[in-house]
Amino acid sequence: MLQIELNQELLKGGMRFPEKRLVQIAYEVSKALKLKRKHNISAAFVSEKEMKKLNLHHRGKNSVTDVLSFTLNNEDYFGEILFSYEQAKRQAGEMKHSVRDEISFLMVHGLLHVFGFDHEKPLEAKKMFPLQTQILLKLGVDPRI
Asked: What does it do (predicted)?
């Protein structure tokens, strides 16, 4: 089972990603991956400046990205997911869906990366994207985001 700890301190104006939604995402991803033991995941919103810096350091890309995921596998946390709220908000506006759905999509996408899935190569994408679609449909999120 997954337990997601989401730091939302960066969000202003009383905006919050619902705790209930985190529980739903954790449940559906746990079920899809058939997780047998507890995995703690740290997640947080970071500024665009910080996200750009991290993206450059870890991926060699000097631009803001929406989500970064890391497998830590230490005694406290199995993984970490970082989000750019501003980038997610922009993407939601461009795609004409809610920020909640965009962050749900990014959370599922990031969790799959933490558990070793990738989409850089066609064969990897063939494994990751159908699973991602299955989870998103269970959550009521359009998988075409």
From this structure: Single strand-specific metallo-endoribonuclease involved in late-stage 70S ribosome quality control and in maturation of the 3' terminus of the 16S rRNA.
